[in-house]
Amino acid sequence: MASVPDIRSCEKKLWDSSNLRKYCLNFEEVPRLFYDDPRVDEFICSHKPVVILGSNLVKPAIDRWSLEYIERNMGTDVNTVFFSRNHKFKYFDDKKIHSCNNPRGVEFSPPMRKEEMKIEDFMKRLREWKRGEERLYMQQSLTSAVGPNIVQDFIGFNWKWINSKQKAHNWGKLTSNLLYISMEGNVTPCHYDEQENFFAEVHGYKRCILFSPDQFQCMYPYPVHHPHDRQSMVDLEKPDHTKFPKFRDAKGLEAVIGPGDVLYIPIYWWHHVESLMRLGPTITINFWYKAGPTAIEYPLRDHQKVSIMRNIEKMLLEVLQDPKEVGPLLRNMVLGRFE
Ligand SMILES: O=C(O)C(=O)C[C@H](CCCc1ccccc1)C(=O)O
Ligand SMILES: [Zn+2]
Fold first, then answer.
1. Measured at the alpha carbon of residue 74, what is the angle toward residues 71 and 77, in degrees to the nearest 5?
2. Among 290, 276, 286, which residue's Cα sits nearest to residue 200?
3. Which residues have a Cβ under 8 Å from the Cβ of 264 and sit 6 or more positions away?
4. Which ligand 1 atom is at minimum distance from the Cα of 187?
5. Gap between the Cα atoms of 162 and 173, Å rounded
6. Which of 67, 134, 208, 272 has the greatest number of C-beta atoms within 10 Å?
7. What is the pLDDT of residues 77-95, one digit of tens each?
8. Which of 208, 286, 290 to mutate to test the pocket of ligand 1 (most atoms within 8 A of CB)?
9. Global confidence as pTM
10. Mapping DSSP to helix (H, G, I), strand (E, B) and coil, where does residue 174 land?
């Protein structure tokens, strides 16, 4: 009887480092644990990222959601699609554009634009995309407006498991599930969100680079009143070490996730996300939860200090009115006094 080949040696590596963008930092790997491993709860409890395997969280989507199936079953409502002239999709809050240095907000030039599109129009643009054209990135929350088949698939998600995590960790309510359909090579630059996130890969491979909230001094976030609030000012591809000297010391983690993997992105953790290059479009569903009620306990957690700094910036803007006065007041308050 011919020896049965070891399945592992047959498993073709579906991607390699040539599919990843190159950065000047080295990153440690995010641990990968099975969903029923008790250590998963330890990671979630201590707000540490972990890749959770085998949860079947979005199994119906993995089994059925090809781009053709989504086109046929997404429903008739329009979807939010971002366009960018390069591979970066840097989110901005258009409600904060006016606050940019001058009243007309002229200084802020949006790095991407948004269109509401029917699913068939998005898919057509995706299929017919040519090099040099604007890249596309659909980021649409799943609502009851989707077609009946997708409603059924959604009901078939592993709610028993994820609800048990929400309960065990005293999270707030599930606020949204965003469906991401990205072109290969698209990048969402480093930012943090104020929600807990279970990030479930449906199709293709995504690389996530994460920095903990205690790396605040290395990440140089935009001011809270800036349209790029919650984003890092550092361009990971071309960091300006003169303007952002501490970025050199940033300690990051990275994970490449594929179909069936769920990455826990803890609240306030910095994350950069890229769809691997030359492997085609990726499909992801996220599960955003409000944070649980955090009792003020000492010593304060790092993410709580970020929240405190945010509140100070908001309060100062409220009382000073002019964003240009916030920096000088903080400098006068700190330099030579608190150092
Ligand atoms: O799920 C998450 O938190 C991600 O960052 C996923 C990311 C797209 C996020 C777009 C975005 C950025 C900032 C505010 C609101 C939306 C990706 O997968 O490319
Ligand atoms: Zn995010």
1. 115
2. 286
3. 43, 44, 49, 50, 51, 52, 196, 197, 198, 199
4. 19
5. 12
6. 208
7. 999 999 999 999 999 999 9
8. 286
9. 0.95
10. strand
